[in-house]
């Protein structure tokens, strides 16, 4: 069975990067994984900190789409490691989330994004679902650590 998640407040919404579960990375508190992930695209540390202070993850994502500030040339390769480290930190920071993730057993996890075919399953389910894959990797790591 596949467990789909996307919006906070819906089933497994805590698995979304938009869920209000902050993480500390590089000595900075990021209100959501989305804030951290979007900021890591950018070379300018001041712009990264501006994203850390964005009022919502939606705003952080919008700031992450800006190309007025230069992004790392190798971002397409770098983004996988950034996402894995951020998701790992989220589920080791918040014990209730760790419990929720482990409660999914070996079910497939998929981000039900209607238009993201890289991190999500995409509207027709043909997406790469990289976020779901990373969540399943972190779930395996947490299981082995128990
Ligand atoms: N717009 C939107 N709303 C949500 O509720 C989402 N969970 C997402 N997905 C996240 O968007 C990020 C990818 O952003 P880039 O396009 O690579 O900049 C990633 O965190 C997805 O999980 N989007």
From TrEMBL:
It catalyses: 2,5-diamino-6-hydroxy-4-(5-phosphoribosylamino)-pyrimidine + H2O = 2,5,6-triamino-4-hydroxypyrimidine + D-ribose 5-phosphate; 5-amino-6-(5-phospho-D-ribosylamino)uracil + H2O = 5,6-diaminouracil + D-ribose 5-phosphate. Residues 4-142 form the NADAR domain. Pfam families: NADAR. Gene3D superfamilies: YbiA-like (1.10.357.40). This is NADAR family protein. The lineage of its organism: Bacteria, Pseudomonadati, Pseudomonadota, Alphaproteobacteria, Caulobacterales.
């Amino acid at each position: 069975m596949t467990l789909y998640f996307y919006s906070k407040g819906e089933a497994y919404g805590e698995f979304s990067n938009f869920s209000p579960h902050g993480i500390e990375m590089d000595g900075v508190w990021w209100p959501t994984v989305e804030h951290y992930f979007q900021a890591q695209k950018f070379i300018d540390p001041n712009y990264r900190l501006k994203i850390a202070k964005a009022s919502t993850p939606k705003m952080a994502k919008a700031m992450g789409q800006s190309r007025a500030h230069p992004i790392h040339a190798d971002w397409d390769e770098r983004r996988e490691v950034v996402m894995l480290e951020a998701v790992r930190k989220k589920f080791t920071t918040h014990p209730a989330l760790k419990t929720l993730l482990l409660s999914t057993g070996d079910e497939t996890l998929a981000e039900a994004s209607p238009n993201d075919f890289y991190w999500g399953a995409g509207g027709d389910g043909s997406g790469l679902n990289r976020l779901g894959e990373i969540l399943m990797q972190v779930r395996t790591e947490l299981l082995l650590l128990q």
